[in-house]
Amino acid sequence: MVRNFVRKSSIPDSKVFLIKKLDEPYFDPTFHFHPEYQLFLVLKGRGMRVIGDTIKPFKEGDLIFTGPNLPHVWRNENRYFEDDSTNQTSGIVIYFQEDFLDNSIRNKEELNIISCLFEKAKRGLEVLGETREQVSTMMQNLLGMDGFKSIIQLLEIFHTIAISQNIRLLTRLDYVPVAKKISTDRMNIVYEYVMKNYNKKIGLNEVAERVNMTPTSFSRYFKTHVNKSFSDFVKEIRINHACKMLQEEQLNISQIAYECGYNTLSNFNKQFREITSQTPLFYKKTFHDLNIDTYGNF
SMART domains this protein is in (predicted)? Predict the structure, then answer.
């Protein structure tokens, strides 16, 4: 049974920014957008995240910076939603408005590097490596701060990210955010269904019917809003889950292919190579040999 989530609280008028520690059975599974910038650190929990037109698995340490009205969701694995689940999630989230720094100082030379960071965040940023470790510690310290010191700490966080080479832009350059509630409501239905049923046959007609559209209209709609076909989206979901399983599970390649919705090993190998440019066996061996710290970076 899915528990109801309280609507996210807005930043109080008396505050420059809002920082929260999240401790829930699972993260908010709703694909949504909001006018605030958001910096989100996963402390505990695993699943799949969708940021604009990108899909990637997440786990502990995932650190993402998103700009205003960029649709996103961190959806935990299906096991988190089971009635008898004992799984828990934890994270730290920071919200601040687009006018956090007034234009009269934001465009000055001294703050230009942070202004550039905010502009990049509109496409979504993943923070990696040593920078991720530094910022994670700074965010946890920020939880215990208030007043002037908290503002200085937040600016230090921005500066640390801004000067780092360990960041990755997430959405494509031509991605246009879907800033309409009716669109995100439809996409929620689609994402929820696919992420619950990626290991089964997923028909275009069935999904189109769920959002009250014809298959042709739905295909066009989906491609416009996600920058990829529905079949490619399903493929990415399945292959990303396969990457997780190759890293975490002791199953053989054939078992993982079946668990991710593939009836033939040849089709699984073909689609895995299309997405990752590697074979499943090579991916698994490389991951364990190098002890890679992030999921499916391809």
Answer: HTH_ARAC
- Dist. CA 298–CA 280, nearest whole Å: 13
Distance in Å from the first CA to the final CA of the chain: 34
Mean pLDDT of the chain: 88
In the structure, what pLDDT confidence band is assigned to residue 178 with cuts at 50, 70 and 90? low
Fold topology of 181-290: Arc Repressor Mutant, subunit A (1.10.10)
Q: Which residues contact 20 (CB under 8 A, 6 or more apart)?
A: 92, 93, 95
CA pair distance 230, 60, nearest whole angstrom: 29
Domain 17-169 has CATH 1.10.340.30: no
CA 34 from chain center: how many Å?
Answer: 15
Domain borders along the chain are 17-169, 181-290
Distance, in Å, from the CA atom of 143 to the CA atom of 33, rounded to the nearest integer, reads: 24
Q: Residue 3 pLDDT more than 60?
A: no
Rounded CA-CA distance 236/225 in Å is 16
C-alpha–C-alpha distance, residues 152 and 160, integer Å: 12
Confidence grade of residue 150 (pLDDT, cut at 50, 70, 90)? very high
Tell me, what's the pLDDT at 103? Answer: 66
Lowest pLDDT segment from 158-167, 175-184, 218-227, 278-287 = 175-184
Contact between residue 17 and residue 154 where contact means Cβ atoms under 8 Å apart: yes
For residue range 272-296, list pLDDT tens digits in order.
999 999 999 998 888 766 555 444 4
Q: What would the DSSP string read from start to end of 178-241?
A: ---HHHHHHHHHHHHHHHHHTTS---HHHHHHHTT--HHHHHHHHHHHHSS-HHHHHHHHHHHH
